[in-house]
Amino acid sequence: MDFTVSERMQTILGMVEEFVEKEIIPMEADYFRRPFRELDPWLEAKRDQVKQMELWAPLHPKEYGGMGLRLTDYALVAEALGYSPLGLYIFGCQYSDAGNIGLLARYGNEDQKERFLRPLVEGRIRSCFSMTEVEVAGSNPTWLLTQAARDGDDWVINGHKWFTSHADGAKFAIVMAETNPENESRHRRASMIIVPLDTPGMHIVRGVSVMGHVGEAWDSHAEVLYRNCRVPRANTIGEEGQGFVLAQERLGPGRVQHCMRWIGVCNRCFDLMCNHVRRRRRTPDEMLADSDVIRTYIADCAADILSARLMVLNTAWKIENLGVKQAMKDISMIKYFVPNVMQRVIDRALQCHGGLGMTDDTPIAFYHRFERASRIADGADEVHKISVGRRFIRDYDSGRTKVKW
Ligand SMILES: Cc1cc2nc3c(=O)[nH]c(=O)nc-3n(C[C@H](O)[C@H](O)[C@H](O)COP(=O)(O)OP(=O)(O)OC[C@H]3O[C@@H](n4cnc5c(N)ncnc54)[C@H](O)[C@@H]3O)c2cc1C
């Protein structure tokens, strides 16, 4: 493995870090207290600045207006952007758009690319991903009640989803629905279908309140009903029945991107913690930093973050050099390891801040509430651990006698 950072990337990272520090962090207090749409003019102005600096959409394809960075380089950018909750949005690589962009770039046809992918990469529209259902376990991706029935050249979709994040104000959703329920294989029954949000029969029921926050626009999660929602069959992404495979393709790289961002969250909390304990006195003569207990918190966080960071970089390197298939165990491992590291780091940082940690005067309380979802969304910890354990056992079943990383 070679994690050398090229000169070009060092320059890019310097620019990104400076922008986050000077232009984004000062606005965080407003983000924590005001409705998202009120920030729109400011957010758009910052996004324009990023475009002028030619740093827009670092991960996304060049031919559609992104920078087209390779994954190991993007890992470092995502880490720098994760330093603020608004970093990814302002640089045009926010979820769920990032996952949808990756999917459309690989599997969309030319018409879908022009109508949906291009404006998405350019940041002119937003999108959402509608897979998880209210009535059945999201942890079992082959179990869907949403049906898309064939009617001439159309699909007629009926179903009930929730946690369709960012649906409010989005132009289209990528909906996972069963199109081939009779197929023998559970993995060949669903398809991914593009549904514009203004399609009759597509109803946002409510914004789901998460940790006391309903939110709006990009900053929200919708419950959605599809009632005889009719779209052309030409809106199918890839082939009919390929939905499960595409979901794995979409979620795999998506998980790596989330983990990269979470290392940024860890870095931010670590910096806040180290700075706070150096400034806060526990007695008139001593700082919190003079306490050995506090020093062990810092030491634990440092080792936690560094190990998580190296695992993420290693996974990105494997995907880039050996392919996604060779990195499946690693992707699952970082998906449970990094969120747990992040949770410990956030918690220790909050503890060191005392009452201040509970306020919205720092981003720690925000991270404490909203990053808890990291252990559930895109696959709960248990599901990934079961998959990792199963894959290792399978290796040994097929003759391996020594571990190979
Ligand atoms: C903030 C947030 C944003 C989200 N955004 C989106 C989105 O944009 N689009 C979308 O489609 N979905 C989204 N989701 C949904 C998310 O992917 C699901 O919540 C997740 O897949 C888990 O499904 P579930 O909630 O139905 O939990 P369930 O499947 O009901 O599982 C409940 C719990 O049971 C345990 N469990 C489940 N299966 C097993 C097992 N086999 N063995 C042992 N234990 C198990 C786990 O602890 C799990 O947390 C989001 C979720 C959150 C919280």
Compile the SSE list and pairings.
Layout (H helix, E strand, L loop, with lengths): L6 H18 L3 H6 L6 H13 L18 H11 L5 H4 L6 H11 L2 H12 L5 E4 L16 E5 L2 E12 L6 E7 L11 E7 L5 E6 L7 E2 L2 E14 L3 E2 L5 H37 L1 E3 L2 E2 L4 H31 L5 H26 L1 H4 L5 H7 L10 H17 L8
The protein binds flavin-adenine dinucleotide.
The site of flavin-adenine dinucleotide has 22 residues, from strand 1, strand 3 and helix 13.
Outline of the structure:
This protein is α+β, with helices and mostly antiparallel strands.
Task: List the defining traits of the structure above.
Butyryl-CoA Dehydrogenase, subunit A, domain 2, 3 domains, 49% helix, alpha+beta, single chain, binds flavin-adenine dinucleotide, Butyryl-Coa Dehydrogenase, subunit A, domain 1
Walkthrough of the structure:
This protein folds into three domains: 7-94, Acyl-CoA dehydrogenase/oxidase, N-terminal domain (Butyryl-Coa Dehydrogenase, subunit A, domain 1, Orthogonal Bundle), CATH 1.10.540.10; 127-241, Butyryl-CoA Dehydrogenase, subunit A, domain 2 (Beta Barrel), CATH 2.40.110; 245-397, Up-down Bundle (Butyryl-CoA Dehydrogenase, subunit A, domain 3), CATH 1.20.140. It has helices at 7-24, 28-33, 40-52, 71-81, 87-90, 97-107, 110-121, 243-279, 292-322, 328-353, 355-358, 364-370, 381-397, and strands at residues 127-130, 147-151, 154-165, 172-178, 190-196, 202-207, 215-216, 219-232, 236-237, 281-283, 286-287. A hairpin with a 2-residue loop joins strand 10 and strand 11 (286-287). Helices cover 49% and strands 16% of the residues. The protein has 405 residues and is an alpha+beta fold. It is globular, with a radius of gyration of 22 Å. The model has no long low-confidence stretch (mean pLDDT 96). The longest helix has 37 residues, at 243-279. The strands form three sheets. Strands 2, 3, 6, 7 and 8 form a five-stranded antiparallel beta sheet that branches. It has a four-stranded mixed beta sheet with strand order 1-4-5-9. Strands 10-11 form a two-stranded antiparallel sheet. Flavin-adenine dinucleotide (FAD) binds next to strand 1, strand 3 and helix 13.
